[in-house]
Amino acid sequence: MGLDTGSVNPAYPGRRVLEACHTHTRMAVMNFHIGEETLAGDLIIIRLEGEVDLYAAPDLKDHVNSAIERGRNKLILDLSEATFIDSTTLGILVSGMKRLRPRGGMLAVLCPDPTMARIFDITGLNRMFSVHATLDAAIAALEEAPKSREES
């Protein structure tokens, strides 16, 4: 079998149009880092750096679930150094918030980038958890939240 050189391009007689099928596969790029910082009481900051996408999701989910299982009822997701988030990230936040609510817990997002913060406005998720431009504002929002049922 010979190589198909394509069909004749009517705009350029004598030239053939190459018909190719391109498939693009995104390789897992390790442009992601996650860390934790525990503050006083039951407050923890989960810091994300780089692209928080489908490939980073399992690590993020593990950190959120682990923090909740260790009794942390106030989580701040720090997106200060994140360059990209996708719907998988948003789903993990919603899932985390659903696990925190019955315990009287709260989740806040630190997102100083107005473009990225707009994602929470567009999706309506800013009504589910608070989004803040500064760490101080995020901490204050969680401290002002009602105490968890275990502390009351």
Relevant terms:
five-stranded mixed β-sheet, 152 residues
Walk me through what this model shows.
- The protein is α/β, with parallel strands linked by helices and 152 residues long.
- The protein has four helices and seven strands.
- A five-stranded mixed beta sheet has the order 3-4-5-6-7, with helices on both faces. Strands 1-2 form a two-stranded antiparallel ribbon.
- β6, α3 (114-123) and β7 (130-132) form a beta-alpha-beta unit.
- The N and C termini lie far apart (78 Å).
Give the SSE layout:
Elements: E1 7-8, E2 16-17, E3 32-38, E4 43-52, H1 57-69, E5 74-85, H2 87-100, E6 106-110, H3 114-123, E7 130-132, H4 135-144
Parallel strand pairs: 4-5, 5-6, 6-7
Antiparallel strand pairs: 1-2, 3-4
Mean pLDDT: 84
How far apart, in Å, are the first and last alpha carbons?
A: 78 Å
Instruction: Estimate the global geometry from the Cα principal axes.
Output: globular
Uncertain ranges: 1-5, 16-27, 148-152
Radius of gyration: 23 Å
Provide a concise account of the structure shown.
The chain has 152 residues and is α/β, with parallel strands linked by helices. It contains four helices and seven strands; from the N terminus they run ββββαβαβαβα. Strands 3-4-5-6-7 form a five-stranded mixed β-sheet, with helices on both faces.
